[in-house]
Specification:
Layout: E1 6-8, H1 10-13, E2 19-23, H2 28-39, E3 44-48, H3 55-61, E4 70-73, E5 76-79, H4 81-88, E6 89-91
Helix pairs in contact: 2-4
Amino acid sequence: MKKPVYKRSEDFFEVKHSIKIWGKPRCPYCDKAIALCTKEGLKYTYYQLDEDYTKEELLELFPNVKTLPQITIDNKYIGGYMELRNYLFVHAI
């Protein structure tokens, strides 16, 4: 089975965006989300559990979430790392 190929969604990268990542320490997907933003030159704000927010505050923002990271772009809920990757890139076949 071939691995999908993704290409950059250039329209997205032409404008500055407000990217916010809610994560926790030692979280592989949180680290991947940060690494992806860094690699692509995107500025983001990172909020760490128990330092910047509590679990209760997270559930107020994102009811019923069970995993981290939780990510918004321009105050629009995106989801986790996989959704971020899909949002930034378009499947090219």
